[in-house]
Design brief:
There is one protein chain. The chain is an alpha/beta fold. It has 16 helices and seven strands. The strands form two sheets. Strands 2-3-4-1-5 form a five-stranded parallel beta sheet, sandwiched between helices. Strands 6-7 form a two-stranded antiparallel ribbon. The longest helix has 21 residues. The N and C termini lie far apart (74 Å). Bound molecules: adenosine-5'-triphosphate (ATP) and magnesium ion. Adenosine-5'-triphosphate binds next to helix 2 and helix 10. The site of magnesium ion has 3 residues, from helix 2.
Length: 413
């Protein structure tokens, strides 16, 4: 019988020792360059081992700066130490990206503390007060100190307001046999502005900011993970440095660096190469950029797509550094083809700024002296992405505008 098709790529052929280690969901046993952050958390949470209430904390930092990894690492250590000392300490982590209503947050925490034989809080249907009462009952029944980690907490507040944070930060007033503290994690530095002043002051008693990693720090993170996850001698000289340098440009994102290294190794495997070289890193970088930009273009609104298309049409016509007016003229034509009423030129100016923020175009303001100021607009979509193809596939409403023929004027003078 023929071999199973999955057997073709056997473990011994793989360049990975343990692919899992390079995955960003993996919690490593050491976190280089986060000593200060770990120490700050430990200083606060050690109170739980002494039966005291740790302060509530807010952790901030750019994506991939290690907030979730550090919090999980410290939590695991806290639980282990609590077990050794015979102290009742509990940690519950809620990912507020997926659990984003007051009811569901309280229910998830309550259910994580459910005792044997007790029915769970249903997914929906109880009055919220009853869920809160059950949560307190469960906390008191277990006793000790409960650490509640709310990861991506800004999503929760954006979606459901700060009522749930008010309820959670009030728990200590109603608990009889236990205590709790809240750790909120966010990558939005302006998060406290979203909160009622009272909630903000209760929650942010201690702030901890995670600075982005620099290239040398990412190199250390990657080296440690590569040692565990990739077979020896597989990486050409300079591969880790290259992945680190590329990711340091992306606000020092360790997640991105790990993805880049993992995909580079996969590209080498795909090539049946025994070594990972610079070309594999380039291919991996292209794939990451493609995966990152394609959904951004696909989910633009119809008018945003038409504005982007107008910039691209001007460029196809040989014009670069176009002004808002030049984009607007073409945009009006695209709207006519798409059967849409054009927005005002002021609105289009705003849309250009949005496209700039999304890194699809650059819009530089230049001074024309006495004649005021003007924009110089250029597209900046990497070569491996075909924005027109992406827009066509994503949105039928812009199809007639993209497929139409245009007679465009070149710039006068
Ligand atoms: N110092 C470090 N040492 C080893 N791995 C790290 C370190 N910092 C981050 N990582 C790894 O990088 C990835 C991203 O880190 P993490 O998920 O903690 O980022 P985050 O700050 O929570 O980002 P986000 O705001 O996007 O949630 C994870 O796989 C994590 O294990
Ligand atoms: Mg995180």
């Amino acid at each position: 019988m023929k071999e199973n098709i999955f057997e073709e790529l056997r473990d011994e052929d793989s360049l990975f020792k343990n692919r899992e280690v390079l995955h960003h969901g993996f919690t490593p046993s050491a976190l280089p360059h986060r000593e200060r952050e770990i120490k700050t958390l430990v200083h606060n949470l050690v109170e739980a081992l002494q039966g005291q209430i740790p302060s509530n904390m807010l952790l901030y930092g750019q994506p991939g700066s290690g907030k979730t990894a550090v919090t999980r690492f410290v939590s695991q250590q806290l639980l282990a130490r609590g077990a050794v000392l015979g102290r009742s300490v509990h940690v519950v982590e809620v990912n507020c990206c997926t659990v984003d209503t007051k009811y569901r947050v309280l229910a998830q925490i309550g259910n994580s503390l459910t005792r044997k034989g007790q029915s769970a809080i249903p997914f929906t249907g109880w009055p919220t007060d009853k869920v809160l009462e059950r949560l307190k009952e469960n906390m008191d029944a277990l006793g000790g100190v409960h650490v509640i980690v709310l990861d991506e907490v800004d999503h929760l507040v954006q979606k459901s307001g700060d009522g749930v944070l008010y309820a959670l930060t009030s728990l200590n007033y109603g608990l009889r046999n236990s205590r709790c503290c809240i750790i909120g994690i966010t990558n939005d530095l302006l998060f406290p502005d979203m909160l009622d002043a009272r909630v903000a002051s209760r929650l942010g008693s201690e702030d901890l900011v995670f600075a982005p990693y620099n290239a040398a720090q990412i190199e250390d993170v990657l080296s440690a993970r590569a040692k565990e996850g990739i077979k020896e001698g597989v990486l050409d000289d300079g591969i880790i440095e290259l992945c680190a340098a590329l990711s340091a440009q992306e606000h020092g994102d360790a997640r991105r660096a790990l993805d880049l290294l993992r995909i580079s190794v996969q590209k080498a495997e795909h090539d049946d190469s025994e070594k990972v070289n610079v070309q594999h890193v380039r291919l991996a970088q292209n794939q990451l950029e493609f995966d990152q930009i394609t959904p951004v273009i696909a989910t633009l609104t119809a008018h945003q797509k038409l504005v982007l298309y107008s910039v691209l049409l001007n460029e196809r016509n040989g014009l670069s550094n176009v002004s808002t007016g030049e984009v607007y003229t073409v945009y009006q034509m695209t709207c006519a083809h798409a059967g849409l009423s054009p927005l005002t030129s002021r609105r289009v100016s705003d849309l250009i700024l949005i496209l700039d923020t999304l890194n699809l175009v650059t819009a530089k303001t230049i001074s024309l002296g006495r004649e005021g100021r003007s924009k110089r607009i250029n597209s900046c979509i990497p070569d491996m992405v075909d924005p027109i193809k992406v827009m066509l596939e994503a949105d039928d409403s812009v199809k007639p505008a993209i497929e139409a023929q245009y007679k465009l004027q070149s710039r006068l003078g």
